[in-house]
Design a protein that fits this description.
Keywords: Coiled coil. The protein is mainly α. Helices cover 98% and strands 0% of the residues. The protein starts with a helix and ends with a helix.
């Protein structure tokens, strides 16, 4: 009877341990799935980061190019303003000279 009782207790203890092992295995699989999901999300985020980093670099290059173009345009505009001012002064001088010749 004592032996049967010990066997029964051992069987109950074994069943509890098996249940505990099964529960731990399920938790382990769940954690592994969560990790795999996290890795996949991290990879996707890394792709997005690389994509936007590339776009940012392209934007920075474009801004730099636009600044250079603006600077070149401002320089060209100032040069043309100087030329127009010179032409205007020359026209005024020519008109004054013609007026003086006409009065003579």
């Amino acid at each position: 009877e004592s032996l049967a009782l010990n066997q029964e207790e051992d069987a109950v203890a074994l069943k509890e341990k098996e249940d505990k092992i099964e529960k731990l295995e399920k938790e382990s699989r769940s954690i592994e799935n969560d990790l795999n999901s996290s890795y996949a999300k991290n990879e996707k985020l890394e792709e997005w980061i690389q994509h936007f980093s590339s776009k940012l670099k392209d934007s920075e290059l474009l801004v730099s190019s636009l600044r250079e173009t603006l600077q070149d345009t401002e320089i060209e505009s100032a040069r043309r303003d100087d030329l127009l001012e010179g032409v205007a002064k020359s026209l005024v001088k020519t008109c004054c000279d013609l007026k003086l010749k006409g009065n003579s």
